[in-house]
Amino acid sequence: MNLKRTIALLAAAAVAASLVACGSSPSAGTEPGTAGSEASGNSGNAGNGGTADTADNNYTSVVLGETGKDIKTTIKVLTHRTDMLGDDYTGKSWKDYIAEFNKIYPGITVDIEGITDYAEDSLLRLQGGEWGDIMMIPAIDASELSNYFMPYGTVDQMKGAIRFATDKQYDGVCYGVPSTGNAQGVLYNKAVFEKAGITTLPKTPEEFINDLTLIKEKTDAIPLYTNYAAGWTMGAWDAYIAGTATGDATYMNQKLAHTANPFADPGDGSHAYNVYKVLYDAVAKGLIEDDYSTTDWEGCKGMLNRGEIGTMVLGSWAYSQMQAAGDKPEDIGYMSFPITVNGKQYATAGPDYAFGINKDASDDNRMASLLFVKWMTNESGFSYNEGGIPINAEDDKYPDLYAAFDGVEYVSDEPALAGEEDLKDTLNSDSELSINNGGDKKVQAIIEHASNGDMTFDQIMDSWNKAWTEAQELNGVDTDN
Description:
Blueprint: H1 3-13, H2 19-22, E1 73-79, H3 94-104, E2 108-114, H4 118-128, E3 134-136, H5 145-148, E4 153-154, H6 155-159, E5 169-170, E6 173-174, E7 177-178, E8 181-183, E9 185-189, H7 190-196, H8 205-218, E10 222-224, H9 232-235, H10 243-246, H11 251-255, H12 271-284, H13 297-306, E11 309-312, H14 319-323, E12 332-336, E13 346-351, E14 354-357, H15 363-378, H16 382-385, E15 409-411, H17 423-431, H18 440-452, H19 457-474
Parallel strand pairs: 1-2, 1-3, 10-11, 13-15
Antiparallel strand pairs: 3-14, 4-6, 5-6, 7-14, 8-13, 9-11, 9-12
């Protein structure tokens, strides 16, 4: 779907994500896919939107501390991380990062503007053109990337420099550098698990539901906190249906669009059906908060830290925030999602929001922005500080939270096939399911129906399959049946 269509859908469905709270989300309103078409603009200078492989000053060619030392300018950065602007932020703030950057580049002033409802408002700002020099790239079709953003280099060049280089690419040109990477798993309180008598982390939906039952029976903690009221937290469940639930890196961006009835029960405890069924069963069995409509995102952080919550299903980005929310950071654990595929566990790993540089900025501002982005990904320690997977391809320093993923294989979604770069977005729009792209309302509906008892889980999945099938037929998509 194009930018205007995206904005219209966001406005109509009110799927804006208040990312000041989450700091960064697994999907974060972005697609982990790609697309293919030539970068527009003049050739030669990457800052002018030209073909990246002929650029003299791209991501891989600049040398921090040497390139651009004489630049004196001010760049503006548009971010979803408004929490990092506050004096009460317990982690490393934007002010701290900029102070360190200015030790190397004192002539570059970095002005940060935070937006609370980033997913929607950033699209409006992007369309209006008044957004500055760097922004976290919102959910637009990959075919539109070259309309707004400067190329960093070719994907082949970037693969040697960063992880997830195909995230924001078009026709082999990279337009976005991820701010950090995330793995998809489950937050849990170690002390609650110990009190409940849970000694082995669950590997299947049945084991997980049994553990939630033990937490309810033997502790005062809420077994599974849904964060229903926040909205965007519900869409996070979509991130588990691909690599985590299938072990297949091609599933999300290549196979899903061609899969007949992708929400049907495969009968082996894997795939999307069994991911969403975990949520339905937990609600139906009374293993969530007493009143899901009154959940509190900010408050839940301290609740998990204090042991008032047993588990929450969120990406690894949330780990550091839960640790910082109370006096017992050592009690916060992170485990793989309880799905096993043919005897093995997998975890989807992918990029968070990506830094995009305004192709229409001045020469100095484009270079200053490039230096800041490379410094943030290579030198700042941001990924590690936020509990994320490092973006620098040569950095193998993973935070301690991933210790429980020993033996779990990380799966990074591969890009869409050539010619189908926007197909999944089109099916998402026409089916109104918004899989892995702000689809919080459909997941909220699982909780509502499970609580009310007015629809069985299979009836919900049947309705999703029907919507997906109709979208496939509308767009003439060949399916695997």
